């Protein structure tokens, strides 16, 4: 999959729009590989001149349909070349792009289209078209719906509907009749023009539309390049939706500025195979994806024989004493020089190869907190995983930089190109809230001036994050300020700090801690990782029928209790989990339990599972629970399940007493 990189060099985006940078890139490197897109098992290649031609024709088609400066155009679909080209074409005609999550429900889509006054929609396929056409009667501003995958679309007839081939043909004809109109439109753009509207995750209320300028997007792309250590021509696989801020900075902004070779997987399910085929050098996943990769490794080791498991553990031990030691600024023991080649050959390199990360030189995690031990695992394997911290409104703030850094922190402040503004400064309020300023800064929320002003404190931006300062001077993110909880005794605790450490367990997919007000201790609701726990159950010959049945098995509850006890030992007494219950079903964004970025909707969960939370603090050991659910076909139903309550003793001899309980006799694989 290698390609001639050509003489590519970074281009400055200062004072430019993204389409203006594209024109400069295509002029400088017309024949250099820009993108690959996998279709029907074959990687299709596109040079910068190919990308520019497609952007021109898309843009010409939009102009012919009356789309122009001041309009908002939505794009909904997976990460594919057409998605990226559509965004650049939208910006080329002076409109603003609203990138949407492909798994949005119709109600979520309706809200965004109404709020941002969408005029045109690019939709990937039949599924997305069905969602949009089901809403157009209530959304009179929509003038066109354009799709780029025609499978299943042969019988569709609608006056607003057309495919991408017709749009390109219309655009080519429009531009031929009007020479120079595309270039004039791009040239008329200003760096301060709106480029993108991204919607916040909406964990506590309706999502807010964050308006980005071209300068903001390119400023943050430049910051990321400075902090992540990427190089021109690096292979990058685009997977995280463009509705995420960091994917806009990395896949879109850095993809053109540096440039990167941006690769698009055939489908989300083929991501691991495609990672291996490409041999990516730069990769970005959210915490849930990195945790899933870690679980993949652990799951496969369950089925391995005793000898393979012993070699695996030995290899990781050597990796910890070498790769992790260097990261922490320590000198590895002398004897590791002799065994490291064996560990690399037999364990570490095969692990990276299995995950498609053999050639990875820049690996990023962002979007939410992840346990430091998860970072340590990947560094042990030889994957240079770094955490990037920031938010949709202000952009990137800090990242793990250099060859040595503290995994317990959120990294050090990222340098800003002076062309975009002052260097980032930060301070903590007496309440622990992080305030920042510098760079292009926060612009505004769409149609919400009051909410915009709430986030400003003079020249400072209020992040809403509760943070501390490490001895090194770096930022340490703890939790959202609004999510801090106070127990009956007056002690406070940060839920995310506990939850991220619990999620490091390969058996736990998600967890929500509860406890405040009149509650005197912390409790937890746990979503087991169905794939990992089911394989663990098979290995231990534990029969089960459904997810609900598996989650309530005595042996599984004992397994989760053991994982919670490990984390409890690291926590202050008042922050330790005293009781827990396993959710009887997986948490689902379509049911409002999670955001599209898989963040907990705490208020919704607290209301939906109110009776279960009460039971965690009551005297009983089980609860008959009824939960309304929505099936994949849209039909609604009711899940009835008996949910067991587990108590965890924090006193001396806890582990010994718990091991004596009958239902906790089975051995537990170390995670």
From TrEMBL:
Compositional bias (Basic and acidic residues): 657-671
Annotated stretches, region: Disordered: 650-671
Protein name (database record): Long-chain fatty acid--CoA ligase
Family annotation (PANTHER family): AMP-BINDING DOMAIN-CONTAINING PROTEIN-RELATED, LONG-CHAIN-FATTY-ACID--COA LIGASE
Start and end residues of each AMP-dependent synthetase/ligase domain: 25-446
GO cellular component: membrane
Gene3D superfamilies in the record: N-terminal domain of ligase-like
MF (Gene Ontology): ATP binding; long-chain fatty acid-CoA ligase activity
Species of the source: Neoaquamicrobium microcysteis
Family matches, as SUPFAM superfamilies: Acetyl-CoA synthetase-like
Sorted UniProt keywords: ATP-binding, Ligase, Nucleotide-binding
Segments traversing the membrane: none
């Amino acid at each position: 999959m290698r390609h001639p990189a050509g003489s590519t060099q970074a281009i400055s985006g200062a004072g430019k729009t993204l389409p203006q940078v594209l024109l400069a890139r295509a002029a400088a490197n017309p024949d250099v590989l820009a993108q690959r897109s996998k279709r029907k098992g074959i990687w299709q290649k596109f040079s910068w001149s190919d990308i520019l031609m497609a952007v021109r024709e898309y843009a010409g088609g939009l102009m012919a349909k009356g789309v122009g400066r001041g309009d908002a155009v939505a794009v909904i679909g997976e990460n594919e070349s057409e998605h990226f080209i559509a965004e650049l074409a939208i910006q080329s005609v002076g409109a603003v792009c609203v990138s949407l999550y492909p798994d949005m429900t119709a109600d979520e889509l309706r809200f965004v289209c109404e709020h941002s006054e969408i005029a045109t929609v690019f939709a990937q396929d039949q599924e997305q078209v069905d969602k949009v056409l089901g809403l157009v009667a209530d959304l009179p501003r929509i003038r066109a719906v354009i799709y780029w995958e025609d499978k299943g679309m042969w019988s569709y007839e609608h006056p607003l509907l057309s495919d991408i081939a017709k749009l390109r043909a219309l655009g080519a004809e429009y531009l031929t009749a009007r020479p120079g109109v595309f270039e004039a439109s791009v040239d008329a753009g200003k760096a301060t023009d709106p480029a993108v509207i991204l919607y916040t995750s909406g964990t506590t209320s309706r999502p807010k539309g964050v308006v980005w300028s071209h300068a903001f997007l390119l400023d943050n792309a430049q910051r990321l390049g400075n902090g992540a250590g990427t190089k021109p021509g690096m292979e990058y696989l685009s997977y995280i939706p463009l509705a995420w801020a960091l994917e806009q900075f990395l896949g879109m902004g850095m993809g053109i500025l540096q440039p990167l070779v941006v690769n698009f997987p055939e489908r989300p399910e083929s991501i691991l195979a495609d990672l291996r085929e490409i041999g990516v050098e730069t990769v970005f996943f959210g915490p849930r994806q990195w945790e899933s990769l870690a679980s993949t490794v652990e799951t496969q080791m369950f089925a391995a024989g005793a000898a393979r498991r012993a070699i695996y553990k030995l290899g990781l031990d050597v990796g910890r004493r070498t790769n992790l030691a260097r990261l922490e600024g320590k000198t590895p023991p002398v004897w590791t020089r002799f065994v490291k080649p064996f560990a690399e050959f037999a364990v570490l390199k095969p692990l990276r190869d299995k995950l498609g990360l053999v050639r990875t030189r820049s690996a990023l995690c962002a979007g939410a907190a992840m346990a430091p031990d998860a970072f340590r695992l990947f560094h042990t394997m030889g994957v240079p995983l770094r955490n990037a911290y920031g938010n949709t409104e202000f952009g990137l703030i800090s990242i793990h930089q250099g060859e040595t850094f503290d995994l317990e922190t959120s990294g050090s402040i990222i340098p800003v190109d002076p062309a975009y503004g002052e260097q980032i400064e930060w301070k903590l309020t007496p309440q622990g809230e992080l305030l920042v300023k510098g760079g292009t800064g926060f612009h505004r929320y769409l149609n919400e001036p009051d909410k915009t002003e709430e986030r400003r404190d003079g020249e400072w931006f209020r992040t809403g994050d509760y943070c501390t300062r490490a001895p090194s001077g770096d930022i340490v993110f703890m939790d959202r300020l609004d999510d801090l909880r106070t127990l009956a005794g007056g002690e406070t605790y940060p839920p995310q700090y506990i939850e991220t450490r619990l999620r490091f367990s390969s058996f736990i997919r998600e967890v929500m801690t509860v406890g405040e007000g009149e509650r005197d201790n912390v409790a937890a609701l746990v979503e087991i990782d169905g794939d990992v726990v089911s394989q663990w159950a098979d290995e231990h010959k534990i029969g089960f029928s459904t997810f609900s049945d598996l989650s309530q098995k005595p042996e599984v509850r004992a397994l989760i209790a053991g994982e919670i006890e490990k984390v409890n030992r690291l926590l202050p007494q008042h922050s330790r989990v005293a009781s827990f219950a396993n959710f009887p079903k997986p948490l689902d964004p379509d049911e409002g339990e999670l955001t599209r970025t898989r963040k907990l909707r705490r208020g919704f969960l607290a209301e939906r599972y109110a009776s279960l939370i009460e039971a965690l603090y009551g005297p009983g050991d089980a609860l008959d629970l009824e939960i309304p659910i929505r099936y994949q076909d849209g039909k609604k139903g009711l899940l009835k399940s008996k949910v067991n309550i587990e108590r965890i003793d924090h006193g001396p001899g806890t582990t010994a007493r718990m091991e004596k309980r009958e239902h906790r006799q089975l051995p537990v694989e170390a995670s």
